[in-house]
Write a structure and sequence with these properties.
3-stranded antiparallel sheet; formyl-coa transferase, domain 3; alpha/beta; 7-stranded mixed sheet; 14 strands; Rossmann fold; 411 residues
Amino acid sequence: MWRYTMARPLEGLRVVELGTHIAVPLGSRMMAEWGAEVIKVEAPEGDAYRSMGLLMALPFKEDFNVLLQPTNAGKKDICINLKDPEGLKVLFKLLETADIFTTSIRLSALKKMGLDYESIKDRYPGLVYAHFSGFGNKGAESERPGFDSAAFWARGGEMIEWSNEGVYPVRPFLGFGDAVSSSMLLNGILGALIKKEKTGVGDYVESSLLATSLWYNFHGVIMGQQQFGHKFPRKHEQPLGGPMQVHYETKDGDWMLIVEPLWDWKYKKYLEFLDLEQYLEDPRFTSFRGAAIHVAELIPIFAEAFKKKTTAEIKAFFIKNDIVHERLVNPSELCEDQQAWDNGYLREVEFQNGKKMVMPKEAVHFASMDEPAYTLAPDLGQHSKEILLAAGYSEVEAEALIAAKAVIQHS
């Protein structure tokens, strides 16, 4: 059962993580925020995400590795050579006191090491074992590598569904699908923990980028079926939901997104605000049905009218009439969002070299939990010896493992 102390929701739980990049590490990062002790296991070459800053044109030196923080802050780190039998024994030793084991290593590699669920479930009956993959663990494509741009966005249909006909398909930013998937995997882990609390028995939790993409893209899964007659990609001039379900450019060059389902109640206000009173009796405008049928004709009319109004004028109109809207924000503005700061969604982090950076906070807040002190993501093998000693190895045994390079201690 849990070693629970009430300080933070997952206080007393121990997580062993054997994963790289984003999806698995981000899920265990959230558990660390909620009080779990998370031990990150890395190979001698380290998690490839440690050098991802090179691809993103961001700092990735050890004392200022900015991308590593959202996925790995708050963890302890041990570097193990799992190709060495003595190193592999260390991982098995860590699992003896673990509540959760989470991994994204391919199933074939786990089986080769004897680390797959079927091989260890009887040895660790209380363990919650969470496995994450690109395309799932069954079928002809189960062993394919799968970054989120491929297995989540491309395979899940979103890149075509969200694109307009005749233009280069949308290419979402790196890691977004991984981040969404990490929350789904964490849901499963928490469910298995509740079961364990009731029964004392662990469970096997499995998810993938493809599974998560299909689940969250349920609109696309349903609308893409031939029986409903939708075709993708859609023309820009034919959005679903009428002319106020798109975004328009303002006089200031901003783009304003509008979500207005109550067309029949508010169309007169739109027309009056945009100086389009000549259309007040035009049947194309006077009902949602008419506007939806003639949407390709209406959008250019509204686009020209919106471009004559300033962003401030448009926002004031929307606020006054309780219309859902938002200006499309540039990433360069995110760290200056006062609403985000007021709600505690952002924090400033100081690195080992003294430099500071703004980072998002974990998005769930508990009324009973004070904000924990921030701990930077660990260096490769930073806590190797400490973890060995805590696992029951003697000083001599720990030093021998390090000397043999079965375990690597950060210098």
